[in-house]
Amino acid sequence: MKSQGKQSMMNGAMILVASTILVKIIGVIFKIPMTDMLGTVGRGYFNSAYEVYTPIFSIAMSGLSVAVLKMVADAAAKGQYGETLRVHKVSKKVFFVVGLAGTFFMFAITYPYAKYIANVRNIPALLCIAPSIFFCYYMSAYRGYYEGRANMMPTGVSQVIEALGKLCFGLVFIKIIQTIGMSQYNAGMLASNGAQATVFGAVVTNNIEANGAIVPWAAAGAVFGVTCGSIASTIFLAIYFRIKGTGFTKEELESTPCDKTDKELARTMIKIAIPMIISALVLNITNLIDTATIQARLKTAVGSPEGFEYIKTMFKTSFDQAIARGRLNINEKNEVIKYLWGSYGMALDFKGLVPMITVQLGLSSLPALATAWTQQKRDEIRNIIETVLRMAMLIAMPVGGGMAVLAKPILTIIYGRGSSSDSIEIVAPIMAIYGIAMLVIGVSTPITNMLQAIGRSDIPAKTVCVAAVLKIVCNYVFVGNYHINIFGALIGTVLFYVTVVAVNLNRLIKLTESKVSWVNVILRPLACAGLSLAGAYGAYALAIRLLPAGDPGSIFNSNTFATLAGIAVAVVIYLVTVLLFKAIRKDDIITLPGGRKVVSILEKRNLISD
Questions:
Q1: Domain map of the chain by residue range?
Q2: 3-state secondary structure 465-499
Q3: What span, in angstroms and rounded, lies between the C-alpha atoms of 594 and 127?
Q4: Bridge-partner residues for 550, per DSSP?
Q5: Is the pTM of this model over 0.85?
Q6: Residues with Cβ < 8 Å from 186, sequence gap 6 or more?
Q7: Where does the pLDDT of residue 535 fall: very low under 50, low under 70, confident under 90, or very high at 90 and above?
Q8: Which residues contact 599 (CB under 8 A, 6 or more apart)?
């Protein structure tokens, strides 16, 4: 008999996973044309701004929001309904103040970061993304409340609205800025008889220099789309709360008045949030340091004549294509660094594919696990932990493996006809290694969330600190070696996640005294993924030999059809083996639309376990 907590968890997980997949699709629709419009160098400017914004943003998402979620879930589990509403009201006040502070902090660090770490041309993008921090903090008060009530629908819808805002506004702003910039260039060249022009305040003498002047401002337009999306999402949540209310009846709220003051609730909120904030900050500041150290060590790698010549030879094919398109000035070392950093950022888009889905499993488990922990229901605690780990592996293994096996074909479909196609040779091996590492990357955040649910958010904070030091040391040693250069960033990242997962998972299992079936969690998903990936590779290799090559400038060519064939074969094999090996349970399906009917059919054929 399945527990109500687990049922609620799986319902929430399905909602968040569905919304996350939709958000990711929207993100791809945004980033593919964005990268084509900006080029790899422009993508480097976008990435640099986003990496500074993320650590400050993470305090809201991974700290304060989760603290509200836990407080609301604990109060509801104890029948203290009035307290849940007070928690929400207090969180809005706290998040308003902290959000303003975060935005002002972002404005304050813009110039020093751009001058000493990234590039002064990054200033417009950094300024444009700063206001988004306030709105992300404020919306977290609403998301945290509804997530604590195990209602994931508002969060899911608001995420989609945020992504759509980023897509629509971002691309429009890029186009407007590029149009204005080229108009200034053409008018100036016409007036000076082809001698020079002034583009956004910079004097340029040719098309390549004009593009270099336009790209930073176009990247700023792209990140301002992020701000517009966060504003739209906040407005939706505020309207939703006004219409739908708290989820409790007036009688329930009045019969359980809150006996705690606002200061007491705020103090508790901050106390719960601090370890989570430290963990999130260390993780994301590590990413910020990643941004700084990777680019700084790339400067070292290309700094010597010998290193610069080696890297130009190593990436000659990609560099030559970028130069031919007017997207890279090979004599400008800063542009070479931004090109490599932009290529790495393209791979990071795929690195986040699995965690964006699996993180929802951890998030949806928080209210259910927090309630089970408060009520000390040991069987339910063990059941939730094993379910989250198993479902994360069922997602991470096939998707990550597919990224590894079909990295270059997938990138060719997405970027093969655009202005960023020249960087595919660099991006593909990075994407493949991250695909293999999904085994640990995909379960990292869910494990952290479950430790937070049982009140031990201090453990991830300590673990992340140790892992972050290892990562930074690896960056310094390997990225600065011009023989390894940008690929050195992979070594530190993989070591980081292995350390975090190994330590946190060990502590979670010991603290909860849970006996997890590793056959169900690892071996069965691994067998299913292995067979499906073998089928994918075989189908792709066969199709690419049999199909006519087609037009490489069109999406309708042999690579596209062979890749789709490989993916289709992998999906079929995976679904069949998941059922044959009983890697998925009745509880996992019954929460889906029409799930009971599907379960009834599978039970008759003995293809599903309890």
A1: 37-260
A2: HHHHHHHHHHHHHHHCCCCCHHHHHHHHHHHHHHH
A3: 48
A4: 557
A5: no
A6: 197
A7: very high
A8: 586, 589, 590, 608
